[in-house]
Design goal:
Elements: H1 2-33, E1 39-44, E2 55-60, H2 68-77, E3 81-82, H3 85-95, H4 105-115, E4 119-129, E5 134-142, E6 149-158, H5 165-176
Parallel strand pairs: 2-3, 2-4
Antiparallel strand pairs: 1-6, 4-5, 5-6
């Protein structure tokens, strides 16, 4: 009589293991098929006051992948005044201010005074994978007078099959800049 009880318990435990294995497999497949969200991070400096930094210039530091126009659009929606990208590009080119994908502090001061802006948003690609079609973007607003960071936003996401790169870049920018305060 003891033997059938043992067999029943063993069979019952195997049934639970099979159920758990199927549940795990289902969750794994479901998570792989579901849309991933943008991984994002936003940090505002303690002394950042949007009312004091209303006019901005947006600088794209990566010559191959452009996403600064999405940054400009999001900042405009939040009430910031953004200098025309062609004006910014012309100044950068004529003065040779961008070197190896970065700006030195003297270049920041020059951009700030020439364009009369209180902040410069530096846009760069931190990681890019053509194989997985994924991006990690950085957007940093700095004070042209001090070079201090006023806010920093970073976002990353892997694209869906068939998704255009421009749609993916826009999605990352919009999600990453969502927490930037609007201008009063």
């Amino acid at each position: 009589m003891k033997r059938p009880i043992f067999e029943f318990r063993f069979a019952s435990q195997m049934g639970h293991l099979s159920f758990l294995l199927l549940l795990f497999l289902f969750l794994f497949i479901f998570s792989a098929c579901s849309e991933t969200r943008v991984k994002k991070d936003l940090t505002l400096a303690r002394d950042f006051r949007p009312q004091e930094v209303q006019t901005l210039a947006v600088v794209n530091l990566d010559p191959q992948i452009q996403f600064s126009h999405f940054v400009e659009a999001e900042l405009l929606k939040k009430g910031y005044k953004v200098k025309e990208s062609s004006t910014v590009a012309q100044l950068l080119k004529s003065e040779g201010l961008v070197k190896e994908g970065s700006l030195d502090p003297s270049a920041l001061t020059k951009i700030g005074s020439r364009l009369q802006v209180q902040g410069i948003v530096l846009c760069s690609i931190l990681e890019f994978s053509r194989f997985r079609d994924s991006y990690r973007l950085s957007m940093r607003c700095v004070s042209p007078q001090t070079g201090n960071t006023l806010w920093f936003a970073e976002g990353a996401k892997e694209g869906r099959k068939g998704q255009k790169s421009s749609e993916l870049l826009k999605e990352i920018v919009v999600s990453s800049l969502k927490g930037i305060p609007s201008v009063p």
